[in-house]
Each structure stands twice: as C-alpha cells, then as structure tokens.
Design brief:
Number of strands of chain A: 51
CATH superfamily of chain B: Folate-binding superfamily
Shape of chain B: globular
Helix content of chain B: under 10%
Number of helices of chain A: 24
Number of helices of chain B: 1
Largest interface: A-B, 24 and 26 residues
Structural class of chain B: mainly beta
Radius of gyration of chain A: 38 Å
CATH class of chain B: Alpha Beta
CATH topology of chain B: Folate-binding fold
Strand order of the largest sheet of chain B: 3-4-5-6
Mean pLDDT of chain A: 95
Strand content of chain A: 25-35%
Low-confidence stretches of chain A: none
CATH architecture of chain B: 2-Layer Sandwich
CATH superfamily of one domain in chain A: FAD/NAD(P)-binding domain
Distance between the termini of chain A: 96 Å
Oligomer: heterodimer
C-alpha cells in the first residue's frame, strides 16, 4: 500500500494531487504540499542518512530549517544537482531524484559504519591527535584519506544550469518571520501605510498556526485568522509578501540579505524564471519574529532513526497528515510536548508520555493527558533506545535525586522528545545586538539593540499565542512609528519547561553515546573530554569538538552544549556565553550570491572601436585591466612566437599598425593648468610650447613612480595627458584628490577622455608614407612636425589630434580621432599601408619593441617601490621646481642611499635563452643558501631584431656592474648573464627622428 | 554595507564611496623645509584611534567629490559627514595625543 503512514484525513497537503519522486532509486509517493521528509515518513522511511563521523544510521529529527541529520543530494536534472539539502525544507514534487549521503555501498549496509566501532579513536580533537606523525605520511596517506572522508554531499561536476537573480529593495519595515507574531507585526505596520516587506522561509505564511489546528484567535479558528490576515496584507499595495524567502544575513545599517526560492518547487518553471533571487533589503526598521527552535534531549543513542523532536511529530501529524509512527513515546521536560501527545492521540495513534519532571511540576498537563487515556510516567530519566536502523523501544527508569531506579522498556516506533525551547536570536545577534541570559526561560534573549530593530514572539522568548500576537502587533506598530497596541484573545498555549542537560543514567559512562550535535557527531562525552583537556572558552570548545558547526550551525545543539559545559565547569551559563552567530542563518547557494554575474557578465569587458576588426583578423586577445587588447595576429600556421617575430620585423623594416585606444586620456584645462601639471608631475611644463609633447613621470607623495605617459600641450591652458592603460582611473583619482583637497584655489578642470578618442599607432620607417595621403591640414615634414610634437588637423576628413610619438624607437605617429571614427580611419590606414606591407601588431610585439629600446612599463619595471633614478629617469626631474608631489621624498635617506636596485639590461650567455620574468639574480651561484639576492628580471623576450634574447632587470647598484656576469635562476638551475645597457637596439636613437 | 551621507548627494550605499585615509592632515606648504623625521611623520604616521576618527571619503561612483566623515572605528558607525575645509562638530579621538 502506498503511503502506509499517511493518516486518513487532516493536514494541509493536497490529496487530490499525488506526486512521485525517488529516494536512493526507490519511488516515493506523496501529495502536493509535502516536503521530502513528510513524504518519506508517509512511506515509513525513517533511515535517510549516515552520520558524518561514525556513519551511524540517522533519520529525520526536525520538520524545518534546523534539521541536522536528514541531508540529501537533490537532483533536479542535468546541471541542477545540489548537495546537503535538508529533507525537511525541500518541497516534494514530481521529477526530483534524491539520494542519501555518506554511505557506501548502500544506505542499509554502509562499510563506513565500522567507524562507530572505532569510536574510542574518533574522540574530540582526533584530527589533531592522530595525524601528527610520521611527517612523511601527511601528503601520501593522511591528507588523501581525510579528503576522501570529509564532507557529506558530492560537489556537482558540471556548471550550474540554473539562472539566479539579484534584487535591491528599500522598505520602511521589514518583518522577518510570518508566524503569529510576524503576521501581527506586518498588520500593524501595514495599517500605517508604510512600505512593508514580510518574509518567511516557508511556502506558506503562518508559522506555528499551520499546525496549531486546535487553536483559536479572537473567536475564530487560527486558520481562519491566518487566512484573513494574509488576505488583508495582500490587499495593501505598500506590502510585499515574500514566502519561501529566508533572511540569512543582517548587516550594517539594517541591510538584510534574503534568498527567495523561486522555482525549485515547480515541476515546469516559467521560462527564464530564476531558480533563486537574492534580495538585499535596506529597511528603515526591522521586526524579527523568527520563532524558536526545540531542543533535543541528550541521552544514550538519542540519534536513532525515529527519534525526533516532539513538536516535529506534531507538525507531521497536523500539517502533513503523516504518522511518524504508530506507537509514539513522548519524552519531555516541558509542557509543549503534551500538546503534541494530545494531537497524536487524537489522530488515533498509541501514545505514552514520559516526563522527566517530578509529578508536582507537571500535574496539570499530566492530568489532562491521562483524561484522554494516555499513560503518563513522571519523574523519569531515559537510559537509551532499542533498535538499530529504526527505534524499537525507549528505555526509561524512575529517577529522583540522582538515584536511577528499575529500567523499563517501552516498545515504540517513534520517539518525540522535547528539552525546551531556544529563541532564534541569530539575526539579532548578527545585527550586533547584545544577548542577555534569562534564567526563567533558560535562554539567551535579545537584549540591547545595536540597530533599528526589535524582536517579537518566540524570538523574544514569548511562547504564549496571545502574547506572541500582542508583542508582534506592538513591535510592528512601533517600527512604523505608531504607538497603537492591541490585545488578542487566543486559546491557551502549553508553555514552560525545566532545563535539563545530559540525562542521568545508570549505564557505564564510558559506553554512553549521547549526542549533542547530530550533524557533527559530537557527544556529551566529547564535550567533557575537551574540558578535561583544558578547553574552557566556548569558542575553543566549539572548534575543538566541532559542536555547532556545519550546515545547521548548531540550531538544535547550542543550548545543550552550553548547558553541559556550564555544568562541567560549574560556572553559571551566562559566564560561559555563546559562540558568535555569523551569517548565513541557513546555507545559501553560491548561485544566489553570484546572481547574474557569470560568463560575459562576470566582469565588465572594455573593448576598443577597433576590437571587432582585430577579432575578424585573427587576433588573440589578452586582458589588461578590464580591457581586451589584441595580443598578436597569428597567420594560418603561425604560433605566437612566429607571429611576434614577424610583427617585430615588420615594424622595424616597414610599418606596423597598433591599436593604442586603451591608453588613459585626461584633458587638463584651465588658466592654472600648467601650474597644476607642474605640481603633479616631476617634469617642467611651464615652458613646453603649444604643439609640443613631453614624456611625463608621476610620483606618489612617497617618491615612488605612480604612472607615466606622453603629455601634449594643445593650448596655453589645455593639456592632453595620456596614462598607462591600467593606471587611468588611478591617475584621474590622484589628480582629483590633490585638486579638490590640497589646491582648491587652482582654476583647473579634469575630464577623462579615454573612451572619447580612438588611438591608431602607425609605427615604422614607412609610417609617414602611409598616412601622408590621408592627412589634411598638417605638414608632416620632419622639420615642420618633429618627434614629440602634436598637430590638429583631419584624417580621412575626420578631425584628429595627430601625435608624432613612438613607443617603438622608430618613426611613428599616434592618430587620435573621435572614437566613432576609429574603425573607419583604421581601415583606411590599413588599406593605404597595403602597398608597404603594413602589419597589424598586438601588445606582445609592442612589449618586445619597447624593451629593445629599454623603455619601461609602469607596473612591470616598477612595483610601487621604484624611484625615477632607479629606472634611470632622474633626468626627467625639473631641477628648478621648488615642489611637486613626491619631490621631498626623493631626498629621504633610504631613497638616496646606495645599494638601491637599478634598471639594467641582461644578456644571457646562451643567446636563445629567454629568462623568466621575476627570476632572481645572484652574484655567485655557489654561495650557501640562503643566497644573497641582488634583484630580479622585470622583462624578458626573444628579440628577432637583435637576433637574441633580451632582458631588463632591477639589480642592486646595477649601473656599477656593467659587464659583470651575474647568475639568474631558471627552472633547471642558474644561467649566466652579463649586465649591459638597457637599450639593445639603435642605441644612438637616430631612427626615431627619421 | 554601510550607508554614507554624501554632503552633496545624500545617503548612498558604501559601495559608491572610497576611503582616502585620515582627514585634516594638511600637506605642508613647503615640504623641503621639513627635516626627514617631520616629513616621515607627515607621510606615514596616522592616529589610528579606537573611537571617533576623521576620515577623507570620495563619492567615487557618484558626484566624485571629496568630503570628510567622522566614523567610530569601534562600532563602524558614521557619526557625521561634512565638506572639505569644514571642521567636525564631534571631538575626534587621536591615539597620538
């Protein structure tokens, strides 16, 4: 019979809509509205996993997001596999394939269960104790074995096929939690007209009202009240209702992050709908109505499948119409479990109640239950459980003043346990609010707020339904700036419990396995061992024993662990404190955090107007900051090396074409422009003539090189500044900073024009011949337009700023045209150059050609600790200037000291050997280790034009070492190289003026 | 994510801003007049208080303007923001004092 444990009636499931999914290959039938957990229980499946360390059989402990045990791998189709899903929150639907974790070869027969027999070895801290020696075992034995054993679920092997969305929202009042307190809060806030967001992690709002089937509010059934509340909230345009939405992080200034599960529960989601949506809500005020978690009881073998929380038993019966067992023993130290027992009895199940409290402390609820014909034992303790893969009996004994009486075994197929309640203060604590221990409720409650928030209902330790509603309403009104309060009439709630830690037992303490943290297999014994070994701080105990860690973050275990530590140390609980609550409250998918920032949207891509042309002509691209730059243009059959050799020769022998559009460009304009430039750069600018260019060097205030680039004076009050490709924003910010904060008196405006100009570099002996027919209004002759000058005119009819500059050492021009003309002018130049064999080249060739000339690249020859003199550019510094940014630092003692690294060339003895950039340099390769490092290689290439490899390096006192042989590290040992001038090609420099 | 009140634009999320370190450290009018110790002090030594700290911020992804803020380095709370050239209304803590 399908669903043998489905009750004949009751529950919120839709019995008209059957669904099917698989668990470990077996077909499970359920109804729409089931969770995977409730459907499994309806089919009598309690064994759903193996525990983390001991591979013990584990079942379903809870009914919600606090579930530590029932973790499943959920497969929703190709690319949609998720590990470690809690069966209690995954909504059952057609087409799901779920599998249990941490077992081999099967859930029923698991070889790893041998760990349970070896449990004396796997005590707290066993990692630290066991894998110490021998040292050589670590890489080969310990680490591979630990890695294979670690974790529970299996990481997906293929990219996530789902889409995820991000959304930012603002509201006046954010209510977290849609139980009675949250609903009341939302109603109160909504009435004021304020913008309200109500979020709840469940598919339906209502929280405990969803299973408090017998409760009444204001004279109507709880369900009728709930439905009316939601209908009212839905009617406000200013209210946003977010079901299936978990607030997982509470950050500064009421910035709350939530994930909304949009389509996981749908068999065929709308096309394009995201799987999840990350909400980042900025709320003026927050109401936390996050409820409370029930505590398990700590007794031997309390992890047996079939042992669950009492309230969860009630939820499965009332909300899902499922009997977790036919004969249920409830064991409790509080009143709430009596409601569960009564509902179980009313559902026709056999029920026994075992109360740990003496009769005098539970007489009223015990009497009520006995009236229903239920056996109630009081003043008991639990010795253990019977059964292996499913609980078959509970062993109890009377216990008074620490004396344990005769044992009795109560046969059962389900145990509902309750050790009291722990308010879910996670978000409050994340908001940096201070927790305060309340002895009467044995709980840490929200104390002093750090942000504009307040807690209500069970989250604030209020468990009575009428009070939950009233505190919720008051909190919602207050958050909305109103003072209205309301009293609610509600059916009474069974509340109150006596805190218990680990239960007294007459068994051999060494053999008792009483679990505190089910997910991490931490027992009460482990905690006590940790304390005997000297771990007393709760944060240390947590890390040493791993209690409270992993996906459930100790929601069910924390208070029990604190209580046991407190008892063992004989210190009051508040003196123990709690561990820090950190986001996320429940696990968040990477997909939700990443959102749409994948693939092409991972990072913005900047492309020049000539990008498409380069792509069409076979360019390989490299990333330079956010830019994609053409790296080299390989012809069919060429590898990168061959292409670069060809491109380098073409520029030196004929003419090459290079896209320099990515260079940063800043227009510096104003009456004080020259003065501003004088202060920002080391160079003198006052006397630079209009139409002339100068290589500018910019320092930080500490004297180290920040950036460089050619600067042209377009007019007395106008400079066209260029920067490095990656440095453009940095330079702009640097200039703005000084202009705004140090010299606001200067009349200067800065405008970034990087994207406005396309820059086409035409380089090589034939450059003038190529562009001459295209340029109008500019005399290109050497006399009229010498090296390092700029002219305005037109090219192909487009306005242009034509620079005669060169980063190759050969005759060259850089054509600046408005970006929209970029590709057309590029193509015109390319066509005009074809008779000369014009060759497009990429950044690799650009690098080689400049290195042949010893031109530095900021960020390659410099690293933020390099001065102008270090790279041989001290001559650029204007001697007459009294001050510029960085000048004073050039006289600092460590900047003028000898022994600084200086830029030199390196010529390897083996001409074909290309050194590694970054390779270290020593004087004597035979010296003892650690060797004295003299410096490192900064640039290294094979130069076709020089017929050998070339390298630039920073070497201590390098300029004094000319001609010396030094030794450079290579992957196969040291290679000898001779220190030489960094200019390898055309040392006289005549070609640039051709 | 913090909210920061730009004196020119109003309250905006932290991601629009960039911090420029301690405020009210004027660049000396004539750096060459400072000895090495005084210059090193100007360049490198900052107050680093536990408490109220005056800082330079720029609304980088907004108006682009630099302004000052008083932030509590312990609570990470922005106490006030004000335009460059103005003085804070809160007394700032100075670990060097």
């Amino acid at each position: 019979m399908a669903q043998p444990f489905r009750l004949p009636s009751g529950g919120r499931v839709d019995r008209a809509t059957p669904i099917r999914f698989t668990f470990d290959g077996r077909t499970i039938e359920g109804f729409a509205g089931d969770t995977v957990a409730s459907a499994l229980l309806a089919n009598g499946v309690h064994l759903v996993g193996r525990s983390f360390k001991y591979h013990r059989p584990r079942g379903i402990l809870t009914h919600g997001s606090d579930e530590p045990s029932a973790l499943l791998q959920v497969d929703r189709g190709p690319g949609k596999i998720d590990p470690n899903n809690r069966a209690t929150v995954v909504e059952a639907r057609n087409g799901l394939a779920t599998t249990s974790l941490n077992r081999w070869p099967s859930l029923g027969f698991d070889v790893g269960a041998v760990n349970d027999l070896l449990s004396p070895v796997f005590v707290a801290g066993f990692y630290y104790k066991t894998f110490m020696w021998p040292r050589s075992f670590w890489d080969k034995v310990y680490e591979p074995v630990i890695r294979a054993a670690a974790g529970l679920g299996v990481a997906p092997q293929v990219p996530d096929a789902d889409a995820y969305a991000n959304r930012h929202a603002h509201c006046d009042v954010l209510v977290v939690g849609g139980g009675p307190a949250g609903l009341a809060a939302a109603l109160a806030a909504a009435k004021t007209g304020k913008r309200v967001i109500l979020a709840d992690e469940q598919p339906e709002f209502g929280g405990s009202l969803l299973h408090e089937t017998g409760a009444s509010i204001d004279g109507q059934s709880a369900e009728a009240w709930r439905a009316a509340a939601i209908e009212e909230l839905d009617g406000y345009e200013s209210v946003t209702l977010l079901p299936r939405t978990t607030a997982f992080g509470y950050y500064n200034h009421n910035h709350v992050a939530l994930t909304e599960r949009v389509t996981d529960h749908r068999e065929s989601p709308a096309k394009g709908a995201p799987r999840e949506r990350l909400w980042q809500v900025r709320a003026a005020e927050v109401v936390l109505a996050t409820g409370a978690h029930e505590r398990p009881l700590v007794f031997a073998d309390n992890d047996r499948p079939g042992v669950m929380l009492a309230e969860s038993v009630r939820v499965f019966i009332n909300r899902y119409g499922v009997a977790p067992g036919r004969r249920i023993v409830f064991v409790t130290s509080g009143a709430s479990a009596y409601a569960a027992a009564a509902d179980a009895k009313a559902a026709g199940l056999e029920v026994v109640m075992v109360d740990l409290r003496p009769e005098r402390d539970c007489a009223s609820e015990a009497a009520d239950l006995r009236l229903m014909g239920v056996e109630v034992l009081t003043g008991q303790t639990v010795i253990g459980t019977k059964g292996r893969k499913r609980v078959a009996g509970l062993v109890v004994a009377p216990c008074a003043n620490g004396t344990v009486g005769a044992r009795r075994v109560i046969a059962c197929d389900c145990v509902g346990m309750s050790g009291g309640w722990t308010p879910a203060v996670h978000l409050f604590s994340q908001s940096r609010g201070k927790l305060a221990y309340d002895e009467g409720r044995d709980a840490f409650l929200p104390g002093v707020s750090a942000q504009a928030e307040r807690s209500a209902g069970a989250a604030a330790g209020v468990y009575d339904l009428a009070s939950c509603l009233a505190t919720g309403f008051a909190a919602g009104a207050e958050a909305a700036g109103a003072t209205e309060t309301r009293a609610f009439a509600a059916s009474p709630t069974r509340i109150g419990f006596t805190p218990v830690r680990d239960l007294p037992t007459d068994a051999d303490p060494a053999k008792v396995r009483a679990f505190v943290d089910f997910q991490n297999d931490v027992t009460a014994k482990d905690l006590k061992l940790a304390m005997r070994e000297g771990f007393e701080s709760i944060e240390h105990v947590k890390r040493y024993t791993t209690t409270g860690m992993a996906t459930d973050q100790g929601k069910t275990s924390n208070m029990n662990a604190l209580g046991i530590v407190s008892k063992a140390l004989n210190r009051p609980l508040p003196a123990i404190g709690t561990t820090t609550f950190r986001p996320p409250y429940t696990p968040v998918t990477f997909g939700a955090l990443v959102g749409p920032a994948r693939d092409a949207l991972f990072d913005p891509i900047r492309a020049t107007p000539i990008h498409e042309w380069a792509a069409e002509h076979g360019a390989a691209f490299e990333n330079v900051a956010l830019w994609r730059r053409a790296w080299y243009f390989a012809k069919p059959g060429e590898d990168m090396h061959a292409a670069v050799v060809r491109e380098c020769r073409a520029v030196r022998e004929g003419v090459g074409l290079f896209d320099a559009s990515t260079l940063g460009k800043i227009e510096v304009v104003g009456p004080d422009a020259a003065e501003f430039m004088n202060r920002m750069y080391v160079n003198p600018w006052t006397k630079l003539g209009v139409g002339r260019c100068r290589y500018g060097l910019m320092l930080k205030e500490d004297g180290y090189i920040l950036d460089d680039g050619v600067v042209a004076r377009m007019a007395e009050d106008r400079f066209h500044v260029t920067t490095t490709t990656g440095g453009a924003p940095r330079v702009m910010n640097h200039m703005e900073d000084y202009l705004q904060t140090e010299w606001p008196d200067l009349d200067v405006f800065l405008t970034s024009t990087t994207e406005q100009w396309a820059v086409i570099a035409v380089q090589g002996p034939k450059a003038r011949d190529v562009i001459a027919p295209l340029v109008s209004g500019i005399d290109l002759s050497n006399e009229a337009f010498p090296h390092m000058s700029v002219r305005e005119g037109a090219i192909c009819g487009a306005p242009c700023r034509l620079f005669r500059v060169s980063f190759t050492g050969d005759l060259g021009y850089e054509i600046n045209v408005p970006a929209d003309y970029g590709r057309a002018v590029w193509e015109a130049v390319f066509a005009a150059g074809e008779p000369y064999g014009i060759t497009p080249y990429g950044t690799e060739t650009m690098h080689v050609l400049r290195a042949e000339k010893g031109y530095i690249i900021v960020g390659q020859e410099t690293d933020g600790t390099v001065t102008p003199d270090d790279v041989g550019l001290a001559g650029m510094i204007a001697k007459a200037k009294k001050d510029f940014v960085g000048k004073r630092s050039l006289a600092r003692p460590d900047v003028v000291a000898s022994g600084r690294k200086q830029l030199v060339g390196l010529a390897t003895e083996t001409a074909s050997l290309v050194l590694d950039e970054g390779a270290q340099i020593v004087a004597d390769p035979n010296q003892p280790i650690p060797m004295k490092m003299l410096g490192h290689v900064t640039s290294s290439y094979f130069s076709a034009n020089c017929g050998r490899s070339i390298a630039l390096a920073l070497v201590a006192d390098g300029r004094a070492l000319m001609g010396r042989t030094l030794h450079v590290t290579t992957p196969t040992g040291f290679a000898p190289a001779t220190v030489c001038d960094p200019v390898f090609f055309d040392a006289e420099g005549g070609r640039i003026h051709a | 994510m913090l909210l920061i009140d730009c004196p020119f634009c109003g309250t905006r999320p932290e991601t629009e801003f960039r911090c420029g370190g301690e405020a009210h450290i004027a660049r000396p009018a004539d750096p060459s007049a400072l000895d090495d110790g005084a210059w090193a002090e100007h360049l490198f030594v900052r107050s680093n208080p536990r408490g109220l700290h005056a800082e330079r911020w720029v609304h980088a992804h907004g108006c682009g303007r630099w302004f000052n803020a008083v932030r509590d380095t312990f609570t990470d709370r922005f106490v006030e923001t004000y335009k460059a050239g103005e003085q804070p209304s809160h007394p700032i803590d100075d670990a060097r004092a």
